[in-house]
Amino acid sequence: MRNLKLIYNKILKTKKIQTAYHEAGHCIVAAMFLDLLNLKALTINITEIKKINPNWRGGLNFEAKSAPSPTDYNFGDKILLIALAGICSKTVYLKGASYVNDNLSNFKSDSKLLSAEGAIDDYEMAQLYINPISQAFRIKTSYVQWSAFRFVFEFLLIPEVWSAVVYIAEELIKHDNETLLKDEILELLTDIGFVEYFTNNKSAILNKRYPLRKETLIKT
Question: Among 209, 211, 178, which residue's Cα sits nearest to residue 82?
């Protein structure tokens, strides 16, 4: 009986770590868009989720600083990137950077290679933004989704960025109530140099994606 309990606890710990990396991925990608978004909280603790917002289902809680236009596809695409970032981050954590680099061209045709377990909410949010972008640019939804995945993977695989994901995930696990609030998130990202790194490289990173172009979205 004791052995079963130890195994069960190990499974829970393993799932918690995976969840922390998933949520840290959302957080780090969202941190690219602090001019547009307020990051409110990041948590892997269900009890804390309900305290902060009874309608919130967990993970990263954020809101737009101002209401975007329905035809602001650049803004919608940024939310799409955030939605898919958890899957990307968990895939990198579980399978490694080399695996991701080697399979970037394969993910497009075989989504089973991605670590997408438990990401139904993320996919649902992604679809809200994929469909309008697809219709606006008159291209397949698969092009929009894959191009978003590829951009996020390439961003997360930058050493300075992945170091930030690791740091946030580890801090999230050991922090009080397994929850980080806005000021704590920003302080951590500043302390490890992510804010400075991204500020210095923002144009080079985001110019690969914005403004959205049909050629960018169908790039393989």
Answer: 209
Compute CA distances 21 → 43, 124, 153, whole Å: 11, 20, 14
109-127 pLDDT, tens digit per residue, is 777 778 778 778 888 889 9
Dihedral sign for Cα 167, 168, 171, 172, please.
Answer: negative
In the block, tokens 């940024």 appear at 78
For residues 84 and 26, give the distance between their C-alpha atoms in angstroms, rounded to a whole number. 8
pLDDT band at 8 (very low <50, low <70, confident <90, very high): very low
* 30 exposure class (CB count in 10 Å sphere: 0-12, 13-18, 19+): buried
Decide if domain 2-217 falls under CATH 2.30.30.240.
no
Measured CA to CA, the distance from residue 212 to residue 216 in angstroms comes to 7
At 24 the three-state DSSP class reads: helix
Q: Given a cut of 60, is residue 48 above it in pLDDT? A: yes
Contact at 8 Å (CB) between 143 and 185? no
**158 burial class (0-12, 13-18, 19+ CB within 10 angstroms)?**
middle
Residue type, 62: F
The domains of the chain are located at: 2-217
Burial class (CB in 10 A: 0-12, 13-18, 19+), 4: exposed
